Amino acid sequence: MIFSTTETVPGREIIAILGVVTGNIVQSKHIGRDIMASLKGIVGGELKGYTEMFNEARSQAMARLEADATTLGADAVVGIRFTTSAIMDGSCELLVFGTAVTLQP
Q1: Where are the beta strands (DSSP E) in the chain?
Q2: What is the mean pLDDT of residues 77-90?
Q3: Looking at CB atoms within 10 Å, which of 14, 23, 30, 91 has the fewest?
Q4: How far is CA 33 from CA 30, 51, 94, in A?
Q5: CA angle 13, 17, 22 (to 5 degrees)
Q6: Contact indicator for 84, 94 with CB cutoff of 8 Å
Q7: How far is CA 84 from CA 18, 48, 92, 97, in A?
Q8: Residue 26 is part of a domain; what is its CATH number?
Q9: Total domain count, the chain
């Protein structure tokens, strides 16, 4: 599966648009990470626990996007975008979406 944030795949022709595909995950805070984040907030610096959490969440969302595209018979997903939103206090959603396409062989 080819993933692209652009609307095309260089060197390949899109022959069919199969539809919008998505992958999402709702992630909640972890009390241990919150404690460390509070301490880090005092001295400054990267909140590595949260960085790791969002990297894992992004990987899971991308896997779900790929599964959605695969069910449509896609070769690629173009125009990929990521968005986040607060669901409730202490949790957020990471959503990835794009257009599933088939490519000229």
Answers
A1: 2-3, 14-28, 76-88, 91-103
A2: 88
A3: 91
A4: 5, 10, 18
A5: 120
A6: yes
A7: 25, 18, 7, 12
A8: 3.30.110.70
A9: 1
